[in-house]
Structure formats: C-alpha cells, structure tokens
Amino acid sequence: MENQNLKKQTKKNNFFRRGGDSGNIFLIIFALLFVIMIGRSFMGGANVPQMLGGGTNAQQPVELSFSDVLRRAPDIKTMEIRGNDAAGTLTDGTPYTATITYDPELLSKIAENGAVISIDTSKTWVDYLGTWVPILMGLFFIWWIFRGFKMGAGGISRSLTQQNPTKITTGKTKTTFKDVAGIDSEKQELMEIVDFLKDSKKFRDVGARVPRGVLLSGEPGTGKTLLARAIAGEANVPFFAASGSDFSGIIVGLGVAKIKEIFDLAKRNAPCILFIDEIDAIGQRRSTHSYNDQDREQTLNQLLIEMDGFANDTGIIVIGATNRVDMLDPALLRPGRFDRQVYIELPDLSGRREILDLYAKKVKVSSDVNLQDLARGTTGFSGADLENLLNEAALHAVRNGRKEISQVDVEEARDKILMGPRKVRKMRPEDIKLTAYHEAGHAFVSIMYADITDPIHKATIIPRGRALGMVQHLPIDDKVSMTIAEVRANLSIALAGRSAEEVFFGSDKITTGAESDIAMATRLARYSITTAGLSPKIGLAAINQVNSFGTRSALENASEKTAQMVDEEVRAWLDAAHEDATKMLSKNKETVRKLAEELLARETLTGSEIKEIVLGKKSAKKSAAKAPAKKVKKDAGK
Question: pTM for this structure?
C-alpha cells in the first residue's frame, strides 16, 4: 500500500512538472524572436538586389556612406528608400547602396538635381512578427503571474520549484546494518530509531517520545550516508534523501518552497526517514549583522518549523549529516529537533579489519594478502579510504596482468595513497647513496627502540611524491596516548636520518632531505611540552598554539618569558634526540653501512630483513618457512 501511494505521488509530481514548463516556453519565444531579428536583417540586405532589379548578371552595386550621398547628390539619378536602406543608380548607370537617415531636407536637395525618389512603406511578415511577438510575450508573462497567484500562497515559488526541482531519492533501500562495518557502537545507538519505525506502539504505551531528529557527524568518508540508508533498510520504510545545497537558489523564497515540498512529500508517506546530507549548507548559525543572508535564514526558519512546529506527530524522522557541527545554529541542535547527536569516529584497528573484510568480498583477493597487517598499517584511514585502497590495489593488479589482488598490489596501493605515485627520477649516484644511508639511519634506530615504539614494516629508497625514500612502521594496536619514553624515542628515530648524513658524510655534506623529519619532530616536541605537560621545566600549564591568518603563530596563555622558555625547551629536546641518534650510529657504523648497502642493492627491505641485518639473526617466521633445517645449514656452510 505504501509503495502504491509513493508511486501515485511520484506520478502526480511528474504531472505537475510536465505542466510547469512555462519557463521553457519563455526560452523558446526568446530564441524565436532572436532568429526573427537576425532573419529580418538578412532579408533587408537581400532585398537590395530586388530593389535594383538586377539578376545574376547585374553589375555589383557600389556602397556609399552617408557623407558620400551628401557629396554626390548631383550624381544620383534614382533612389528607392526602405527604412534606413537606400538603393538606386547614378547618372553614369552605376548601381549603388547606402544607409541614410530619413531627412526631408536631404531628399529635397537630391530631388532638385532631377533625381527620381520613391519611398516603400509596405510591411513584410517579419515586421509584423517583430511588432506582435513582444506584445504576446508580455501578455503571456502577465498570465503566468496571475496563474501563480491563483495557485495560492507560495504559488509562484512552488512553480519555480517545479522548474528547478529538488533532487530527491525516494523508495525503499536495500542497505542494512550488515553492509555497515567498523562502527558497532554507533549502530547500537541508532537501533532505537529502527525499533520505533518497526513498532511504535510499545514506545507510545510507555509514554516515550522517540527522537525526531538524529545528527550524524564525523570526518569525511566515515559512513554517515551509508548509515542513514542502513537505518531505512532495517526499518523497511520509505527513504527520502536530499542535499543541503538543493534548498538554495538565486530566487528569494525558493528554498522555503523546497523545504515545504519535501516535507509534504514525506508526510504523505509517513512513517519514513528524511535524510538531508551536508545540512550545514542551510543550517548555518544565524547572524546579527545587517548584511546577513536573509533567504538562507528564511530557509533555516522553515526547516526549524517543519521539524518541531505546531504539528508534532508527523511520523518523520529527520537524519542530518555534516562534518561541520560547529557551524550549525543552536536552535537546530536543541532537543525536539535534533535530539540525538552521533559522532562517527575514524575506525580503530578492529573496525578497519571489519571494513576490509567487508570490501574484500567484493573483489578477488589472493590468499597471500594479510588483511590484519593492512589494517595495522592504515591508521587514520576512513571507510571510504579503505575501499579506495582495495580499488587501487585491484587496478594495479589488472595493470600487471594478475587476476587476483596480491600482497604486492596492496603494498603499492597503500604507498601510493600515503606518499603519492612512484616517481621516475634521474638521480645522481651520490644522491642515491646519501638517501640509502639516511633511511638506514632511521631503520637502525627504529630497531634499537623496537621494545617501546611501533615495529618497523619496511624501508625503501624508491622515490614517491616529494619523498626520496621512507621507513614505515606498523602499530600493533591503536594507541590513545604516548609515554615520555616513547616521545623521546620517536624524536630520535625522526632525527636519525640527519644524524646518519653527518656520521657517514660529514657535517658539511648534510642535505635538505631531512626537512619533513625535522618538521614532524618539532611538532611532536612542542605538543608534548606545551599541551601534554611532559616537560618538568614548563610544568603542567597548558599553552595552546594560536593559528592566525597571515601572521606568525603566537602562544596563548603565555607571557614572553614563558614563550622563550618553551622555545628553549623544544630546542633542548631536539638537540638531545639528535645527540642520542648520533651516538647510536657512531657506535654501530659497520652495521648501518651494511644496512645501507643492502638498500642500495635491493631498494626495499622488509622489517624482518632489517632485523636480520641489524641483530644478526633470522626471524622465526622466516626460518620456519624454509625447507629442512639440516639442508639449509649444509648449504650455508658451502
């Protein structure tokens, strides 16, 4: 029954839209008038040969300017005038054409010399169209205005909405909670909405009021739209979706009419879900300035009325989605409108694994792909990022002639997303060598601090984006905090590349390759000192960084003396980390050199291979994978 009503309403809307094509008629009439005027000008020029009576063999007429007509008035024998166009013959028989201004004195002066003058005042059908078409257009416009008033209040705006309809996705969606992974707590929060849409009686018997609106917020790509569709799919109710930008227009009052239109459509199909994506486009905080956007505020006011006005029991649950909650008007966020706000966070390790398992069912993945390691190496990725990663891996597999996604494809896709596509650069041998020692320094210090930092995944000297090489770490799990020992260890790892350049090439050979390392280390040290309170010298005072446009960043809640102390402490932490990394590398120069030579030879080393070189022993996983131990020892002895 609901589907039949929805189809009838859709047919009705289509009927009105087909009947409301008056704007297209205006465009057709304008185009017709333009063509008529162009044709009139061409036909006026085409009449000249007819006025001269010439045929295909007639002499080509001479074009005279208005001054030539005044000067050669005694030479004119005949003149035929139609509008501002004149044509005739001279006394020597030469035909001519001219553009003149109608002037009785001029004509009498020409006639005094014996010229025969005739004036054609007849009108063609083009002249009649040029006269009547503007009149008919004016009458049609007046009829259209009165037709809008006849439709009642807001009739003209409603007609405009039919000419510029809101893009509304209607019907029942097949998406359910099974298609949403990695946000279990958010799904549990929204199950009450589904229960109400399935059985509202048990809520009414207790006297409970179900939230009229749910605001979904979070980083882009976390699944806000997908979750809204899943709610409608679980409840098996009609789903209406629109974007916030659909309610804005250049015509005042159009947004209000569109809000009424979509809510009227939803009321006729209640209970249902109305989803407004990017709601901050119409729900921005209202301003007190005189230059504020009145039309946008009227649209917001209409939305507030529809969500919680005089008619409360509408059976519509409004779901809004945005990643800019701070921009929304407080009246929109109060209980009774958006009663519940659900923040969708970026997925954690287990959530990323669930998302990868979900999307891996849609593509062909080889058995050698370790999705758990992939989930560990994608910290900070959203659901959309993970789906894109597998798609990039699939594209890479196709480019290389494989029918399944292998581990190589996954690694390439992740590196491409994190650092950019692989660059083919012609580098000098000394630059390649310096890059290898730079990355070897990072890798060696990472192994030295392996007990308190994230395990190393791989090191490579293949250029990507702006980076000439990189060392990747894979976290064992998602960390919510860091100890001061971890902070100092990460600072040493970050500055180990610069330290390796100094140890193996000298302080006069250091390069700008450590730019991103120094920037990252400085941010970490400043955050630890000013915000996290890890510096005994500065203490537990929170000193926030102020981001100001066009000027240098300043320190908030800090005097000039404190700001100077902060700068000195940041410098001291970085110097200590640099000294620590330099000592490690200086004491183990041969090991670091061996690691760098392996990078030069093989370009990429895995974490287990780096451990084998640095620690001098093979990893258990690698040893177990090889065929019988006795044979391996015998071959090694050879």
Answer: 0.64
